[in-house]
Specification:
The chain is an alpha/beta fold. The chain has a single domain, classed as 3-Layer(aba) Sandwich (Rossmann fold). The protein has helices at 4-10, 12-19, 30-40, 75-86, 104-107, 122-134, 166-172, 177-182, 203-221; strands at residues 22-26, 46-50, 91-95, 114-117, 139-142, 154-158, 184-188. Helix 4 (75-86) links the parallel strand 2 (46-50) and strand 3. Helix 3 (30-40) packs across helix 9. The longest helix is centred in the last third of the chain and has 19 residues, at 203-221. It starts with a helix and ends with a helix. The model has no long low-confidence stretch (mean pLDDT 96).
Length: 225
């Protein structure tokens, strides 16, 4: 993969850092798919994908891995295909399962530089945060993106500092203050729309996913403003 333009921006040493990190993404949907896209196009070479779901027609409006031609296919398989079409040299590990308290220790280990939580299951999010905290693994967790329209309202912060996010509030109740402070999240301060369905628009989960990618790269190569 030709990364000359990226190298000219961040330098060879920083590019090497990105190429040598190891990242797990839990949930390859609207948010997770854009995290994956951003990381692969930024030179990351070792990625583990964890998602037990299949692509559905309702995914087409917001998930970058979904097309009219792959409905019904496993998300991890389609995501891996996309990765290797961008960069055939990337090491892609796939787990077509939903993460649970019982299987988390078999999939997530201390070799990961970052774990990205982009799944929809609240219990899985809580268990993943607790596991990463206990094992000193950096984690970024995506809070709710449904029922939101204003992409400018998204922020990166620690979980204890979130506001106007019902999902973050629910998760905080199950975690200690230390666990909350340890956990970086992307969340929106927009008050969600008062509708009965999980309405979504294309750019909102994309913005959340790319903000996660931005946070990782900032941390790895220590970008200064």
């Amino acid at each position: 993969m030709n990364l000359d333009r990226l190298e000219s921006l961040i330098g060879k040493e920083n590019l090497n850092k990105l190429q040598n990190i190891k990242i797990a993404i839990v949930g390859i949907g609207g948010v997770g798919g854009y995290v994956l896209e951003g990381l692969v196009r930024s030179g990351v070479m070792n990625i583990t994908l964890i998602d037990g779901d299949k692509i559905d027609s309702t995914n087409l409006n917001r998930q970058i891995i979904s097309t009219s031609n792959n409905i019904g296919e496993l998300k991890v398989n389609e995501a891996a295909k996309r990765v290797l079409q961008i960069n055939p040299d990337v090491i892609v590990n796939k787990f077509s399962i939903f993460l649970t308290k019982e299987n988390i220790q078999d999939i997530i280990d201390n070799d990961f530089d970052y774990v990205i939580d982009a799944c929809d299951d609240v219990d899985a999010k809580i268990e993943l945060i607790k596991f990463c905290y206990r094992n000193d693994i950096k984690i970024i967790s995506s809070m709710g993106t449904a029922k939101k329209l204003d992409g400018t309202k998204f922020k990166i912060d620690t979980l204890n500092n979130t506001k106007y996010c019902p999902l973050a509030k629910k998760i905080r109740k199950s975690l200690s203050l230390d666990e909350q402070k340890y956990t970086t999240v992307v969340y929106s301060e927009e008050v969600k729309k008062d509708i009965n369905v999980l309405g979504s628009i294309s750019y909102v989960p994309a913005i959340a996913g790319l903000l996660i990618c931005n946070a990782i790269i900032n941390d790895i190569i220590k970008i200064e403003n």
